[in-house]
Amino acid sequence: MNATYDVVGLGNAIVDVIAKSDDAFLQRHALAKGAMTLVSAQQSERLYSDMGPAIEASGGSAANTMVGVASLGGKAAYMGRVFADQLGQVFRHDIRAAGVEFATPAAKSGPPTARCLIFVTPDAQRTMQTYLGACVEFSPDDLDPAVIEGAQISYLEGYLWDPPRAKEAFREAMRIARAKHRRVALTLSDAFCVDRHRAEFRELIDTSLDIVFANESEILSLWQVASFDEAVRACQAHPRRIWAITRSEKGSVVIGDGLATHVAAERIEKVVDTTGAGDLYASGFLFGLSRARPLIECARLGHICAAEVISHYGPRPEVALATLAAAKLGG
CB under 8 Å to 317, separation ≥6 — which residues? Predict the structure, then answer.
């Protein structure tokens, strides 16, 4: 079946607020370094008032991934809930300007557009404090079935599994995609997210998913094992799934048809900010899959995209990834 889109992403529509920080700041505010933590509107305001000079940029994990797909030359769409406020307008403008279709109507009532405060320490680790705002009310009413039916791959953000209505939307999106024999991908998003939803994520792997993205801590949490090798063997026990597991500077391990392959990370002069690294890895991998490329090449594309985004501040590419990928892969 012909596809209108390569990938459609469903996730939290968030505006990122990124600032340099230090470990003393994290300790003073009792922030879990390197993790994403959900906070209230009041906590968000308190942290914002105490953080240093910041860069504001539209973000959200799945949204960043779709921007990367578009930058590679893919046809990407996105669904996420924003409020009819200034940040909502900023988000809509930014993602459309990046070449991603975003037609979800803005909410006229309820909480404001979500924001994520990101504190980047000198070791390039990012600690995220997220106020979900309008995201928590994402529901099946926000889905466009025609877009899901017309996308080769529907990419779901694990972070959005928390709100009950959003969970309903994800299950409906999976049902729509699978009815049209389209593929469904899930990113596990965060080890704490896996801790909260382990049983349900395992059930989705058994019944509804074709592709799973995770980092090392997330995959260990998913299978509740102590070593990475044990986690890989657990993934291999599900040979009908494609697994893309990132390991920072160690590269990634890709598992398809039960076979595991290590793919080296791209060399980079200096890591500036790891925000968006996993998101952009998924961009390259999904784009490669949409072009029926071998899994190893999909992973290489992922590493090329991730290397670009960690070389500067912010979660989205600053150069055309299509040009970069062509230079690295020879076309």
Answer: 67, 68, 71, 280, 305, 308, 309
> What are the DSSP calls for 81-119, one per residue?
--BSSHHHHHHHHHHHHTT-EE-PPPBSSSSPPEEEEEE
Report the Cα–Cα distance between both ends of the chain, in Å, rounded.
26
Q: Which is it for strands 76-79 and 5-10: parallel, antiparallel or unpaired? A: parallel
Best CATH choice for the domain 5-12+60-111+135-329 from the list 3.40.30.10, 3.30.470.20, 3.40.1190.20, 3.90.180.10:
3.40.1190.20
Phi, psi of 120 (to 5 degrees): -100, 115
Q: Which residues are 107's β-sheet partners?
A: 83
At 1 the pLDDT is 64
Q: Which residues of the chain have pLDDT under 50?
A: none
- Tokens 């600032």 correspond to what residue? 19
The three-point CA angle 216-218-221 to 5° equals: 110
Instruction: Give pTM, 2 decimals.
Output: 0.90
Residue 279 known to be catalytic: yes
Catalytic residue from among 6, 142, 273, 279: 279
